[in-house]
Structure formats: structure tokens, C-alpha cells
Amino acid sequence: MRLFLLTALAMVAFAGNSLLNRAAVGAGHIDAFTFAAIRVATGAAVLLVLARSQGKTLPWRGRLVPVLALTAYMLGFSAAYLGLEAGPGALILFGTVQITMFAGAVIAGETLPRRRWLGATVSLAGLAALLLPGTGAIPALSPALAMVVAGIGWGIYSLSGRAGADPLAATAANFALALPLVLIPLALMPLQANLTGVAFAMASGAVASGLGYALWFAVVPRLGAARAAVAQLSVPVIAMAGGALLLAELPAPGVILASGLVLAGVALASRR
């Protein structure tokens, strides 16, 4: 029961990033890139404190690929919620991450069973359906493409971290090294932020990202790869439910149908 509760808490934290970002950026409390910068800065601070408190040595070298991928995820994620609702945004992100990791496995020459091919195909069909204008999931193509960029970035980030011996230390280093990169857009455009937007961004970075990732790293070894993959199926569902309850974003029937396809495909690909 304790493992279940900790896992559920981590999934709520992950979905919380979508809800906080949408509530802050979508409502105009803060611009997308300032939100991303505050999220990375506060997330890095929390992760560094946690890593140092456990006596971990941070791996600063050889981090170019994960740092660039993390930067793409953070900037694309925040920019997408200028137009996307919380639930569809999380679903596009989640589906794109799974497709990216599947493609990475194919490129790496891994032997993949038929069910993984079938699952990836079903998920891709669900994503394609979600992006169709008739579903009502996206008001314009640009925010959906921004979330696809974020999903590709997070997928590459996940692939690059599979060989790491200490994910908490690696993530702390990656967040710290990504901070200068996410600050670059702030020099190119006017800033917009009020106290509500800053508070939401800090909560996303310190709690939903920093503490959320740390908790996830603690429970993943006890869950195993298959159960961890299935557990993450709940993130878009939680984000969609939270968007309906907290942000009055009720999903259209087409969105629900496309969501079912994406989640069914991922579940099929994740089975042992």
C-alpha cells in the first residue's frame, strides 16, 4: 500500500506540471519562457540540495545530449500551454515520448516483439487523431507542435539516462546545466509575470519537478520497468481530470476517444 501511495503521489506531481503551467501561462499570469526559467531554477535548487544531502557526486561531464534535450522539453512544454488545455497537452507529450523512445529502440537495433510494434502503431494513430481539427483538442497547430518538440526532447532525455547509475545526481546536474540555456529566450523578448505566475512556476519547479522526480527515482527500482511504464499511463488521465475540475476544461468526445487509443497503445507496448 505504501508503494502504491508513493507512486500515485509521483504521478500527481507529474500531472501537476501540466496543470500549473496551463493555469499560469494559459491565463496570462506569466509568459512561457519566464515560467520555464523559474521552473528549471527552482527544480535545480531542490535537486542539488537533495543530491548533496545524500552525499552524491554530481556527474558534470558528458551531459551535452541530456541537457539539450531537457532544454527542448522545458521550453516546448511551457510554450505549448499558451494554446493547449492541460489534459490534451499531457497526452500529446506522453504519446510523443513513447513514440520517440520506441524509435530510439529501433535505431539502436533492439529486438522488439510484435506487441510493441502494434502498441506503437495504435498510439501513433491516437496522436494523429488527437491532432485532427475535428477533435477539438487543439485550437491551432503551433502549440501542438511545441508539445511534440517537448515530447521528443523528453524522450531523448529518457533514452540518454537509461545507462546512468544514479538518476537523481544526473538529473540535478542536468537541471543546473540547462538553466543558462533556458535563460537565453528571456534576452530576446519582453518579460511578463505577476506574483501568481511566479508562485505557480516555483511550485512546478520545486514541488512537481524537483520533489516529484526525486520521489519517482525512489520508487522506480521497487516497481520495475513494466509497472513503472504502466503507472505513467495515469498522468494524462490525472491531468485531464484536474483540468476539468480545477480549470473548467471539459474534454470533447473526440479527445476522449483519441486519448483511449494513445493509452491503449502504450499499455499494450508496456506489457511483459
UniProtKB/TrEMBL annotation:
Localisation per UniProt entry: Membrane
Keyword Transmembrane helix: yes
Stored InterPro entries: AA-Vitamin_Transporters, EamA_dom, EmrE-like
Keywords for this protein: Membrane, Transmembrane, Transmembrane helix
Residue stretches spanning the membrane: 32-51, 63-84, 90-109, 116-134, 140-157, 169-189, 195-216, 228-248, 254-270
The EamA domain, residue ranges: 144-270
Signal peptide: none
Membrane association type: Multi-pass membrane protein
One family name in Pfam for this protein: EamA
The keyword Transport appears for this protein: no
Gene Ontology cellular component terms for the protein in this record: membrane
Name of the protein this chain belongs to: EamA-like transporter family protein
Source species of the chain: Gemmobacter megaterium
